[in-house]
Amino acid sequence: MRVTVIGAGIGGLALAQALHRADIDVVVHDRDAHVGATGGYRLALDRPACEMLRRHLGPAHYQALLGSSAPPSASRTLTLADHRLRPLAEQTFDPADEALFIGRVPLRTLLAEGLGDRVRFASTYRDHEVRSDGRVVTHFDDGTTEVSDVLVGADGVRSRVAATLAGRPTSTPCDYGCIAARIPLTAEVRRRLPAMLADGPGLAQGPGGLGLFLTAHDPAAGATVDPATCREVAAITEAPALVWGLIGPEAVLRPGGTALAAGALVAHARHVLRGWSPALLDLVAATDVDTAAYFGYHTCDPDGDLTPWPAGPVTALGDAVHAMPPTGGGSAATAIRDAGHLADELVAARDGTTTIPLATLRFQQTMAGYAPSRVRDALGLLRSMQRLSHPVASGVARVGLPAVAAWHRVRTSLTGSGRPGSAVADHARVVS
Ligand SMILES: Cc1cc2nc3c(=O)[nH]c(=O)nc-3n(C[C@H](O)[C@H](O)[C@H](O)COP(=O)(O)OP(=O)(O)OC[C@H]3O[C@@H](n4cnc5c(N)ncnc54)[C@H](O)[C@@H]3O)c2cc1C
C-alpha cells in the first residue's frame, strides 16, 4: 500500500510516522520551504494525543518529545484576571495527568525525524482524481504527479483537499484572531512576571472582547525526561520564553484587513492594550518582535457532517476537517488523535482485514465521535470572551466564571481527568 499525505503539519507527520513504523509506504508533501517554516507558539497535547504518540512512535522518539516538553507541573493553575490584573477566578489541575507542553517547531521537527526523503517540502497540492482502478492520481503545482492507493488531506485550515472532496470550504472565518509572540524569559522578565503566572498560565480579559493569554514556557527548567538521556533521538530544548497571545476581534487586531509586519504587529498590540495594567504593557514591550505573527481563527460547523463525501480512497484529518479556534487548546491534539485512528484502519486494510473505503469510513465515523465536542469547547470559550465586549464592571466575575468553565472543560479533556462536562463549580473558584 502506498499513501500520499498532503501537509507535513502536526497531523500529517503523526500519520506518516505511524504508517512508516507499520512498514506502509508513505510520502508527505508540504508547501512550506522547510520543517522550521511555521509559527513558533506552544502547543498543549492531551492524554489521548500522548497515548497515540506513545503507541505509534518508537520509544526513543516519544522520550525525545518528553525531553523537549515543559512539565505539566508548570501548568498547575490557570488564573483568570481582568485587564488590570485583578484576579477573578482560578482553576487548578492535577500535574500527574499526562500531557505535553511543547513548541510547535520542536514538535514538528521531531515528528519529521527519521522520515528522510519521505517528507517533500516546497511541494504544493493542486488537485487529484480517482482512477477507474481505485488508485488516486495527485497533481502538484510544479506539474508533477504521484499515484497512490490512499490520499490524505492533512493540509490544515482552508484545506484544498477537503474542499475538493466536500465541494465547498470545510470551515469559515470566526472574525476573531490572535497576535502571538514570545518574550525572552530573562532574569529581569522573570522578576517582572505577574503573580498570576506563578503556577501556570493566565488569561487577562479586558473590554472590547479582548483577552491576553500568557504562559511561561521553560522546558529546560525540569522537562519530564532529562534531555541529556535522549541519545537515539535528540530532544530539542527551546530557549525559555513567556509566550503571549492577544486574542480579539479581527477588526481590532487587523484594522482594514491588512497584514502587518512582525514589528508593526507588536506595536499595534501595545496600542490596543492601552489602559491595561502597566505590568502587562511592560512585558509586551520586551517582546522579541521577530516572533510575532497574526493568526485568523476558523471554525467548522460542529453540528454538521464533518466529512460530507462518500468514503473512498481519499480522506482528510485534523484542521482540514474540524477547524476550531485554538482557544480550546485541543486542535493539534485532535489532529494527532485522528492520525492514530486512521493509521490503525489503514494497517488493517493493508493486512486485508478490511478494504480501503471501509477503513476510511470507520476512521471518519470514529472522528465524528470526539471532534465536534472539542470544537464546541473552543467556540464556548471564544463566546465567553465575546460577551466581555461590554464594559467591564462588577458583572465581570459572572462572565469570568463561565470562561473558566470553558477552560475547565478543555483542560478536563486535555488531561483526561475529572468528569467531562461536569459542573465547573466543583473545580473553579471565584477569587474575591
Ligand atoms: C496561535 C496559535 C496557537 C495554537 N495553540 C494551540 C494549542 O495550544 N494547542 C493545540 O492543540 N493547538 C493549538 N493551535 C492549533 C494547532 O497548531 C493546529 O490545530 C494544528 O497544527 C492542526 O494540525 P493539522 O495537521 O491539522 O494542520 P497544520 O499543523 O496546520 O498543518 C497543515 C500543513 O499543510 C500544509 N499545506 C496547506 N496547504 C497545502 C497544499 N495545498 N499543499 C501542500 N501543503 C499544504 C501547510 O503548510 C501546513 O504545514 C494553535 C494555533 C495557533 C494559530
Averaged pLDDT: 89
Portion in helices: 25-40%
Bound molecules: flavin-adenine dinucleotide
Strand content: 15-25%
CATH topology: FAD/NAD(P)-binding domain
Number of domains: 1
Shape designation: globular
Q: What strand order characterises the main sheet?
A: 16-12-15-14-13-4-5-18
Secondary structure blueprint with pairings:
Elements: E1 2-6, H1 10-21, E2 25-29, E3 42-45, H2 47-56, H3 59-67, E4 77-82, E5 87-92, E6 100-103, H4 104-112, E7 119-120, E8 125-130, E9 136-140, E10 145-148, E11 150-153, H5 160-166, E12 172-184, H6 187-192, E13 202-206, E14 210-217, E15 241-249, H7 250-253, H8 262-272, H9 278-285, E16 288-299, E17 314-316, H10 319-322, H11 331-350, H12 356-387, H13 396-415, E18 428-430
Parallel strand pairs: 1-2, 1-11, 2-7, 4-13, 11-17
Antiparallel strand pairs: 3-6, 4-5, 5-18, 8-9, 9-10, 12-15, 12-16, 13-14, 14-15
This protein binds flavin-adenine dinucleotide (FAD).
Structure description:
The protein has helices at 10-21, 47-56, 59-67, 104-112, 160-166, 187-192, 250-253, 262-272, 278-285, 319-322, 331-350, 356-387, 396-415, and strands spanning 2-6, 25-29, 42-45, 77-82, 87-92, 100-103, 119-120, 125-130, 136-140, 145-148, 150-153, 172-184, 202-206, 210-217, 241-249, 288-299, 314-316, 428-430. It has one domain (2-430): FAD/NAD(P)-binding domain. It starts with a strand and ends with a strand. The radius of gyration is 21 Å and the shape is globular. Helix 1 runs parallel beside helix 4, helix 1 runs parallel beside helix 11 and helix 2 packs parallel to helix 11 (331-350). It has 432 residues and is an alpha/beta fold. Bound molecules: flavin-adenine dinucleotide (FAD). Flavin-adenine dinucleotide (FAD) binds next to helix 1, strand 3, strand 12, helix 10 and helix 11.
